[in-house]
Fold:
Amino acid sequence: MFVIKHPLFGLKRSEEFKNHCRIAAHKRTKRIGYYFSTLARKNQVPGMQGKKHTLKTIKKMSQCKKGSKNPFWRGGVSKERDRYYSSYKYRIWREKVFTRDNWTCQKCNTRNGNGVEVYLQAHHIKPFYKFKELVYIVSNGITLCKKCHSLTDTYGGKANSHFAEEARNVAD
Ligand SMILES: [Zn+2]
Structure:
């Protein structure tokens, strides 16, 4: 195979030459030396440079990007469930349930610590899909580890199948 070698291949570059290359590369990438004239600078609009929006403005800006105003809006496809589980109120509810149960699984009594790692979950005793008014009631929650929780019959997607079944029954 024939390879064209760089004209400086094998030769030692002087420090001076190396420096020259460095500066040239720096100028190329950072565009140093491409300045606006003082007049051009004066005519530039300063915009938000060095300033901060007020909280009110930030809120306004966020409002006009929310929901149907967002280009990613797909017509409200995120289910009620998803909205619930990402809500702040749900996190508070879960925290309260865990604290009441002393961060211990109420079925098998395991808890974190002493080299044991348990993934705790807050379970709705009366299922979420049926009792919408009880979803934030602490007494309707119970702390379970992931294993025990998965044994309940409304765990994860199972509740959805229940719901589908009931809907079918109603339809019949
Ligand atoms: Zn358990």
Notes: Residues 105, 107-108, 110, 144-145, 147-148 surround zinc ion (CB under 6 Å). The CA atoms of residues 126 and 140 lie 6 Å apart. The chain is about 40% helix and 5% strand.
